[in-house]
């Protein structure tokens, strides 16, 4: 997989320079490239306890992204997923430690423990007061004598950072964060492994599976489970955490492992807020990418039974963008629509033949979802099938509320339903189509005449005409042939849709931004949907 880097050997040094260069002068780095890569606060005066953390790179924004007032004093960056050297850690300690001393915050991996531990001993030989805590919050592998340190480390960073900023002593900070470590529990899940720069991707997790409890360096988890949806994934994670949570209110940290979209993380936050442990969760940090694993498509949840003092420390302001802050978890607030926007529903009425017909149309569009998405990926954003299928599902669900026996009112009701449930420009256009068809039907036009009137209005507002490579290229000829027979309409729709594959320029829709090479040979997905609808209705 191609990545945005120069050489794999320089990716960490290049990244460190990028972090420092864009810090607005708040950060600096020590000399000693490429072996010593230490990011430090540029305003540090050594009057307070210094906080030094770090480890392998690839977990950005951890650790350098958390260097700043109220958090870390320095971060020591190793190679990707590799501990920094003893000399690099020692350089960081010596650079920032004054009479108040230094706390090393280390994740529980052998390399980090050894290198940070030896550096601490050597710093003590220089006469410095150095303490070290080891974070072991991962509960994925309960039989291991040494649990891994993962995203729960951020609780330690923030609480220690707030205490140090307030002038607490090294002993006070050390004792406090040891209690934090003891109470912090974390587990993660991913749908895929990460891609280490310059190395082939390990295809360990099969399609349709998720791995529970994998490490932040891509280490195998405790088990692979069948993946169905976000709710099931969050339930599996929370089930593991539940057995480790005591009484009292907890703060959760919802961490993006690097490759999960912001949209997906919001869905996971929703599932966490109604999970089996939701009753014990009062506050949340995130969702955000905080301790990542390169591009891993996963997430982790950390929980900690915060005291009032802990919550105060976690809530202390910091200017660092990497720290998302603490927020309360509350029920979703729903406000009434403003006057005039609340839909006025026509009286529902039953008509068995119309119900069967509409349901059949919806089922046809649902069945085409994947094929239409593939077509749309060639000339758009790959969601035409999903958009139409979503609208079809919504129509089926609302069937009992529709005026099925009054086709004039039904057209208008369909337009109203689509305007609310169907996204994108296609939803608006089809809403216009059915609303105009309803107006035409109320004036006495036949079904075909009403549908043609709807199409004319849709074209007028949408701006698409025959030959513009849209659904109009199939719908217009189909309606022209509909009075002859449904078979003729289906044949005309298919001819119109197929013709769009020969058009190398689109004059409307997202395909208008695509070059000729990408369009040629690919049918417009909207036209294809119309053609398939008529073909299936013809039988």
Automatic annotation (TrEMBL):
GO terms for cellular component: cytosol. Its EC number is 2.7.1.29. It comes from the Bacteria. Residues 352-539 form the DhaL domain. Keywords: ATP-binding, Kinase, Nucleotide-binding, Transferase. It holds the Pfam family Dak2. The keyword ATP-binding applies. One of its GO terms (molecular function) is ATP binding. InterPro entries: DhaK_dom, DhaL_dom, DhaL_dom_sf, Dihydroxyacetone_Kinase. Residues 7-323 form the DhaK domain. Transmembrane segments: none annotated. It is an enzyme of class 2 (transferase). The keyword Translocase does not apply. One of its GO terms (biological process) is glycerol catabolic process. This is Dihydroxyacetone kinase.
